[in-house]
C-alpha cells in the first residue's frame, strides 16, 4: 500500500508538470512515404485524430467532419491528420476505406501503435489540437455535436 | 520493493533536475480497470475467491534533449481480472526503458515494442484488454543509413507476466525503399528479416533444436491506384510440443505466405488479402507453445476477418489456427478476405441528398489438406492446399443519412463457423444476423442512439436478440442500457447498464451487468473470458 502511495505522489507531481508533445516518430502515409510527426504543426495548428477502421464512433467522427471539411478549411484553416491505429490485421483496409469514403484528410499509419503508446494508450477516437508541436486540447470519444465543439476550440486556439 | 524504491529515487532526482533547469518534458498515464464480481443464480456463476479485482497501469515518460526514459508500474490486486494470465498477479515495474535518438540513430535499452513486416515473423505489442504485453527486454538499435535504407537489430528476452522468457530472441531487419533510391514514380518497398529464438536444449538428442531461426522477405508495390504486397516466412525446425510436453525426436518446420492487393480511388476502395500458414506458432519458450494466454508469442498471426461492431455478430468470431495439432487434425490454415468500400455520390439514386456509404466484406478460411500420424504426432501437408472449412462470413453495412440530424446503419452478416475447430467441440453452425442502428442528433451536443439486433443460428444456443439505447447528455457524458438475450435455448439475458464521462485527459466509465462467456477478440487475437456478473469501473487519464 505504501508503494502505491509513493507512486501516486510521484505521478501527481509529474502530472502537474506535464506538457505533452507529439513524439518524434515518422509514420508512413497511404503511399508508403515517411512523414515526420514532429513537423506536422510547424508554424500552424492542426487537429490530429487517432482512429481505426473497426471503431464505429471514429468513423462517425471522421465522416461527420468530412461533410464540412472543405468549408472549414476555407473558413478557419482547419486541417486534420487522421492517424490510423489499425494493426497489421486491418491496416491494409485503411487505404480502401479512406478512398472509398472520399476523405480528404492526410492519413498516416501507426500499425504498431507507437504514437498511441506515447499518448498513454488512450481509447480511440482521440482528438487532439496541436499548436507548434504542443498538445493544447484533448478529447476522447465521439457523440454527434462534438464536432461543433472541436471547430470552436480550433478557432479559439488557432486564432 | 527494491526496484520500486530505486525507481522512485530516480524519478525524484529527475524531477528535481527539471525543477532547477526547467527543461525536458513529462508525459504519462494511469489506467485502472476494476471489477466487483457477484454471484449470479441466473447465470449459474459464483464470484471468484477475490471478488474485487483490479488491473492498474501507471506509465511515466520523461524526455530530455535526445534522451527519453520510461517506466510502467503495474498493480494487479489482489488478483488480475478473470481470464487474465495469472503471472500478472501482484505488482511491480512491468516495463522500463531508456532511449537515445540522434539523427538517424535510435537506440533503446530496456523494454521495447516493434514489428517486422506485417508481424508474421515478429511483433511485440501491448494490449491491456487482452492482457498481452510481450515486449522484449534487451537492446534495440535502429539506424537510417539514407532516406531509402533503414535497418534494425535487437536482442533480448520477452516479457512474461513480471518475469522474462527463458529463450533469447534476436532479430535483424532491413527495409529498402526503391522508389526513393531510384527516384521512381511507382512506390516499391522491399524488406527482409531474420529472427532467432535460442533456448537451451532439454534433450539428450544432439539434433534437438536449441536455435530456431525464421527468415522472411517481402515487397510492396504501389502504382497509381493499385497496390500489391507479398510476404513469405520460413521457420526452421522446432521441437513438437503438445500440452507443454516437449518431444525429443519430432522436429517440424513452418512457413507462411501473405498476399495483399487492392485498388483505391475516390469513392471506391477494394482490398483482397490471402494468407496460408503451416505450423507458424513461434514462441520464446518452446513449452509455452499454444498456451491460452498468448504469452511468449514472438510472431503475430491475426484472424483476417472483419471485426464486427455489434453484440450478436461478435458471438461466433474466427480465431486463427496457425498451430499443428495432429490429434485435432490441424496443420495450419488457408484463406483470405475481400473488403469493398463504396460511396454513392450525393444526388445519385442510391446516394440521395447526403450520399450513402456501403461496406462489404467476405472472408473464407479452411484447414490445410494434410495427412496425420497421430501416434507419432507428425503430419504431411502442402502450404497451398485446402480441406475442411473452418470459417466463412459475408457481411454488408449500409450507412445512410436521412437528414442533418438523423442517420442509420444497417448491417447484415452471414456466418459459417466450425465450432469443433475453433472452440474444441460442438456442431458446425450457420447464422444470419441483422442489425439496425439509428442515431438522432439533438441540439446542445445531445444525441440518442438505438440499435436492434437479431441472430438466427442453427446450432449451439440457437437464436439471439439484442437492443441498445444510448443517450449523450453532451459530448462529455453519456449513458447506455443494453441487453443481449438468448431466447431460444438458455433464456438468459446478458444485460448491462452504464455510463461514461470524459473530459480532456480523463475518462471514467462505470457499468453493471453480465458478461457473456467466450472468446473476446481484439485485433484478430482472441482470449477466453469466463461468464461473469459484476460492477466494472474503468478510469484512465493521460498527461
TrEMBL record, chain A:
Signal sequence, renumbered to the chain: 1-18
GO molecular function, one term: antioxidant activity
PROSITE patterns assigned to the protein according to its UniProt record, in alphabetical order: THIOREDOXIN_2
Chain segments annotated as coiled-coil in the UniProt record: none
Annotated PANTHER family: THIOL:DISULFIDE INTERCHANGE PROTEIN DSBE, THIOREDOXIN-LIKE PROTEIN HI_1115
Protein name: Peroxiredoxin
UniProt domain Thioredoxin: residue ranges: 16-159
InterPro entries named among the record's database cross-references: AhpC/TSA, Thioredoxin-like_sf, Thioredoxin_domain, Thioredoxin_ResA/DsbE_sf
TrEMBL record, chain B:
Any Pfam family hit: DUF6029
Entry keywords, A to Z: Signal
This protein's record includes keyword Signal: yes
Annotated signal peptide: 1-19
Name of this chain's protein: TonB-dependent receptor
Organism: Nonlabens ulvanivorans
Upper lineage: Bacteria, Pseudomonadati, Bacteroidota, Flavobacteriia, Flavobacteriales
Amino acid at each position: 500500500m505504501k508503494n502505491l502511495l509513493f507512486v501516486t505522489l510521484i505521478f501527481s507531481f509529474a502530472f502537474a508538470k506535464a506538457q505533452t508533445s507529439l513524439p518524434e516518430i515518422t509514420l508512413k502515409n497511404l503511399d508508403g512515404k515517411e512523414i515526420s510527426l514532429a513537423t506536422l504543426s510547424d508554424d500552424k495548428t492542426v487537429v490530429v485524430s487517432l482512429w481505426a477502421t473497426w471503431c464505429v464512433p471514429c468513423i462517425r467522427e471522421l465522416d461527420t467532419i468530412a461533410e464540412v471539411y472543405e468549408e472549414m478549411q476555407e473558413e478557419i484553416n482547419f486541417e486534420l491528420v487522421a492517424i490510423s491505429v489499425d494493426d497489421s490485421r486491418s491496416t491494409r483496409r485503411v487505404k480502401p476505406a479512406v478512398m472509398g469514403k472520399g476523405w480528404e484528410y492526410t492519413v498516416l499509419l501507426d500499425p504498431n501503435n507507437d504514437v498511441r503508446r506515447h499518448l498513454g494508450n488512450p481509447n480511440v477516437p482521440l482528438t487532439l489540437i496541436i499548436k507548434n508541436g504542443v498538445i493544447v486540447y484533448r478529447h476522447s470519444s465521439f457523440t454527434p455535436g462534438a464536432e461543433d465543439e472541436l471547430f470552436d476550440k480550433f478557432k479559439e486556439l488557432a486564432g | 520493493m527494491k526496484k520500486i524504491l530505486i525507481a522512485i529515487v530516480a524519478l525524484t532526482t529527475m524531477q528535481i533536475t527539471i525543477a532547477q533547469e526547467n527543461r525536458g518534458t513529462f508525459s504519462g498515464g494511469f489506467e485502472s480497470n476494476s471489477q466487483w464480481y457477484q454471484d449470479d443464480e441466473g447465470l449459474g456463476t459464483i464470484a471468484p475467491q477475490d471478488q474485487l479485482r483490479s488491473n492498474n497501469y501507471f506509465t511515466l515518460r520523461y524526455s530530455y534533449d535526445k534522451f527519453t526514459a520510461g517506466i510502467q508500474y503495474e498493480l494487479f490486486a489482489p488478483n488480475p481480472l478473470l481470464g487474465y494470465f495469472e503471472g500478472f498477479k501482484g505488482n511491480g515495474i512491468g516495463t522500463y526503458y531508456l532511449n537515445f535518438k540522434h539523427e538517424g540513430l535510435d537506440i533503446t535499452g530496456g523494454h521495447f515494442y516493434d514489428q517486422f513486416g506485417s508481424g508474421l515473423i515478429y511483433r511485440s505489442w501491448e494490449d491491456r484488454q487482452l492482457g498481452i504485453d510481450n515486449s522484449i527486454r534487451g537492446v534495440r538499435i535502429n539506424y537510417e543509413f539514407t532516406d531509402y535504407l533503414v535497418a534494425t537489430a535487437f536482442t533480448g528476452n520477452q516479457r512474461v507476466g513480471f518475469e522474462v522468457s527463458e529463450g533469447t530472441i534476436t532479430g535483424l531487419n532491413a527495409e529498402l525503399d526503391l522508389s526513393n533510391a531510384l527516384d521512381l514514380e511507382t512506390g516499391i518497398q522491399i524488406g527482409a528479416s531474420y529472427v532467432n529464438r535460442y533456448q537451451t536444449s532439454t534433450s539428450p538428442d544432439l539434433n534437438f533444436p536449441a536455435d530456431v531461426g525464421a527468415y522472411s522477405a517481402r515487397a510492396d508495390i504501389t502504382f497509381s491506384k493499385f497496390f500489391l504486397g507479398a510476404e513469405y516466412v520460413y521457420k526452421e525446425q522446432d521441437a513438437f510440443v503438445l500440452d507443454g510436453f516437449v518431444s525429443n525426436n519430432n522436429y517440424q518446420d513452418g512457413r507462411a505466405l501473405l498476399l495483399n492487393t487492392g485498388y483505391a480511388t475516390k469513392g471506391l476502395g477494394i482490398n483482397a488479402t490471402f494468407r496460408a500458414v503451416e505450423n507458424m506458432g513461434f514462441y520464446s519458450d518452446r513449452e509455452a507453445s499454444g498456451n491460452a494466454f498468448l504469452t511468449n508469442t514472438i510472431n503475430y498471426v491475426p484472424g483476417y476477418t472483419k471485426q464486427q461492431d455489434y453484440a450478436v455478430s461478435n458471438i461466433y468470431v474466427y480465431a486463427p489456427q496457425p498451430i499443428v495439432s495432429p490429434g485435432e487434425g490441424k496443420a495450419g490454415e488457408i484463406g483470405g478476405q475481400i473488403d469493398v468500400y463504396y460511396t454513392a455520390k450525393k444526388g445519385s439514386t442510391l446516394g440521395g441528398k447526403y450520399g450513402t456509404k456501403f461496406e462489404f466484406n467476405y472472408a473464407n478460411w479452411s484447414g490445410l489438406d494434410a495427412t496425420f500420424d497421430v501416434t507419432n504426432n507428425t503430419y504431411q501437408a502442402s502450404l497451398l492446399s485446402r480441406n475442411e472449412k473452418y470459417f466463412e462470413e459475408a457481411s454488408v453495412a449500409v450507412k445512410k443519412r436521412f437528414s442533418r440530424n438523423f442517420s442509420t446503419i444497417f448491417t447484415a452478416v452471414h456466418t459459417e463457423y466450425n465450432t469443433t475447430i475453433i472452440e474444441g467441440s460442438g456442431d458446425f453452425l450457420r447464422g444470419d444476423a441483422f442489425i439496425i442502428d439509428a442515431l438522432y442528433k439533438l441540439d446542445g451536443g445531445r444525441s440518442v442512439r438505438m440499435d436492434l439486433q437479431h441472430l438466427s443460428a442453427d446450432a449451439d444456443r440457437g437464436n439471439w436478440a439484442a437492443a441498445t439505447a444510448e443517450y449523450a447528455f453532451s459530448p462529455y457524458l453519456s449513458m447506455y442500457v443494453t441487453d443481449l438475450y438468448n431466447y431460444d435455448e438458455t433464456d438468459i439475458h446478458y444485460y448491462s447498464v452504464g455510463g461514461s464521462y470524459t473530459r480532456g485527459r480523463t475518462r471514467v466509465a462505470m457499468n453493471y451487468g453480465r458478461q457473456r462467456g467466450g472468446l473476446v477478440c481484439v485485433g484478430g487475437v482472441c482470449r477466453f473470458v469466463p461468464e461473469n456478473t459484476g460492477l466494472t469501473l474503468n478510469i484512465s487519464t493521460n498527461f
